[in-house]
Each structure stands twice: as C-alpha cells, then as structure tokens.
Amino acid sequence: MSIDNSLPKKASGSKEGLILVLGSSLTIMGSVMVAPMIPKIAAEFGPTTPDAATLVPLAIAGPALAIAICAPLAGWLADRAGRKKLLIIATFLYALFGFVPAILGDLNSIVVSRLLFGCAEAAIMTCCTTLIADYWHGEERMKFVNFQVIAIGLIGSLFFVIGGILGEESWRTPFYLYLLPLLLIPFMLKVLWEPSEKSEEINKAVASAPMEKVAILPLIIGYLMILGGMVLNFVVPIQAPTLLVEMGITSTTQIGMSAGLGLLATLVGSIMWPLLRRVFGLNLCNAILLTLLAIGLWMLSSASTYKEVLFAVTVHGIGAGLMVPNVMAAVMNLLPLSVRGRGLGGFTSCLYLGQFISPIVIGIIISTGTDLHGAIYNLAKVSLVVAALWVIAALFLSSKTPTPESESSLP
C-alpha cells in the first residue's frame, strides 16, 4: 500500500479548502486580469520604447515563463522547507510585485517586475496543489481538485471582467487589485498546517518508504498532456482580443467579457467532470475534452461576429474546464508524499510553459504562410487528432487499466 492511501485524513475540510482554493485562484488573476490591457499598454509605450512589440507581450505572458522555470525549484523547496512557510512568503511577494507596475513608468522595469511576480505565482500554485494532495485522499481529494478548478474559473472570469472595466480609463488601475491577497496571509497563518508538523504518521511513512517508485511513463504523459492542453487553452485569452479588434471591437469591457465568459464556461466543464470521469474514465475524458477544445478553436477561427466569438469561447471553455482536473488528479495520484512537491512542481511547470509557448506556437504556424485564423484552425485539427489517439489508447488499454473510479488510471 502506498504512503498516500495509508494516511488518515487530517484536514477538517472547509477552512483549509477555502484558503487553498483562494490561494490557487491568485494564479489565474495573474494573467487574465491584465490581458485586456494589452492594446492600451502597447499604445502608451509603443512610440517611445525600443522593442515594445516584444516587451508588451512579454509583460503579459512573461509570468507564465517564470512559473515554468521556477515551479520545479518551488516544488523542491516545498518538500524541504515546508509548504506553509513558502506559501505565505510567496503570497506576500505576489502582492508586492503584482502591484508595482501601477507605479512604474518604464516598460523594461514592468517586464522585470512581472517576471518576479511569476516566480511568486509558481510557489503559490505548487504549494496549494501539494497541500490539497497532502490533506485529502481518495474521493475527497478528487472533490477538492474539482473545487479548486471551479473556484479558479469563477474567480478568474470575475476578475477578467473587473480588469476590463477598471482598465477603461487607465491600464494601471487593475494592478492595484493585486494587493488584495495580503488579506489572505493572516488566515494562512492561522488555518493551514504543515503535514510533517500535524501528523506523526506522515513522518513515519516518509521515513519508512523514502524511495517509493513513481510510474515515470504515466507521469510524462500527464506532463505532456497538460503542456499541450494549455497551448490550446491559451489561444482564447491571448488571441481572441486580436480577432475582436480586427472585427472593430476595441472596448476593453467587451474584450474582457468575452474572455471572462470563456473562463466561466470552464465551470460547466468542471461540474461535468466527476460524472464523466465515473462513466468514461480518465482516458476517454481526455478524448472528450480535446474534442471540445478542437470544436471551440474551429468555431473561433471562422467567427465573424461578436456573438460567434462568444459561442466559440464557451465551447472551448467547457473543454478547458475538463482538462485541468482530469490531468491534475491523475498526476497527484501517481506521486508519493516524499516527492509530491517536486512532482507537482513539474506539473505546474508544464502547465505554465504551455501558456507561455502558446503565442509562440501560433507565431510559428503563421510564419509558414497562413494568417491568425488559419493558425487557430490548424491547432484545432491537431487537437482532434490527439483526441482520436486517446480513444484508441482507451480502447487498447480497457482490459488492462483499472475502473474509472480507480485513482491510479493513466493520465
């Protein structure tokens, strides 16, 4: 029996869960709240700053690169120094570096502050996800993974719209909202606990089985799945504003509402996930979510009106809502306690690397001779092909894999 399944559940549930899902939601605020500001930031710094065409997108997408680089280190620190301590420090730094662009007048300094902001995000996401895996097990863990994703989608959609509204007069205003997480720190200090401090049984388990093996191939599949999935996922928040501007829609409120609707649609996927997981299993759920992403991207690539864009991002968002809990739950269940921070740090790294390279992938496809619409359409076709491969894999492994309810299914 693995360490994970032998440990009793120590978390009371509501308080710890609320703090952790709110902490997890900080990472979605890091990107979605300022994405509608891209046109205004470019308009202010473009005429006066060399390489502004490169620096402005980097100011928005740079945190994802920082997270991808720093998440493995954050996971190592979480295993060595403790999840709670690192989470509290990272939350303070998140508020500090998140707010700073509001008072900076130099685009290069803003980019640097956003990269440091991303390092703090890496620690927050890794620690929150690891603590969820530490505190709950079995079906309780599945429920909290889903709760985490639902909260991220709900809070992300809310702040996308809020960011767009506040940015109507000045792109700097939304950055003040990054000070709000300071209010979480006292609750983190009071409610959260280190597993090694709370449960003597955890210490004994780690000491008795420090070399427990990890199923490497399923773990790599999970990492690749979340990396590729996030490339497809972030086409909407990064590219939809450009498509809308081409249609003549320049209002940051309308742009924010379109992306906020996509995030809100992830709630539908997250709510559907527990039932779909039980009926179809994790592997076929991957096929379903990739098909939904493909349909959404195809519709977005051919959209010619604002309403068509809204419908496309809704379908796409449902697939995205299925993706994160489906892949995250499988990866969590592959990792014993002793390496859980590092393993989930790798997962977080792949998740945000996918976000960062999404516009790069689009740019590479465009360089082959197509336009933005064609690039999105090509990604839709790739998503559909991979979905078909998951169907084949699910059918091939059906006689060898556990039941859908089992935690050890392939990601």
From TrEMBL:
Signal peptide per UniProt: none
Compartment(s) where it occurs, according to its Swiss-Prot or TrEMBL record: Endomembrane system
Single Gene Ontology MF annotation: transmembrane transporter activity
Record's GO cellular component terms: endomembrane system; plasma membrane
Membrane topology per record: Multi-pass membrane protein
Main localization category: membrane
Pfam families according to UniProt: MFS_1
Superkingdom of the source species: Bacteria
UniProt KW Membrane keyword: yes
InterPro entries: MFS, MFS_dom, MFS_trans_sf, Sugar_transporter_CS
Keyword annotations from UniProtKB, A to Z: Membrane, Transmembrane, Transmembrane helix, Transport
Sequence intervals crossing the membrane: 18-38, 58-79, 86-104, 110-132, 144-163, 175-193, 214-235, 255-276, 283-303, 309-335, 347-369, 375-397
Domain (Major facilitator superfamily (MFS) profile): residue spans on this chain: 16-405
UniProt-recorded name of the protein: MFS-type drug efflux transporter P55
Protein source organism: Marinomonas alcarazii
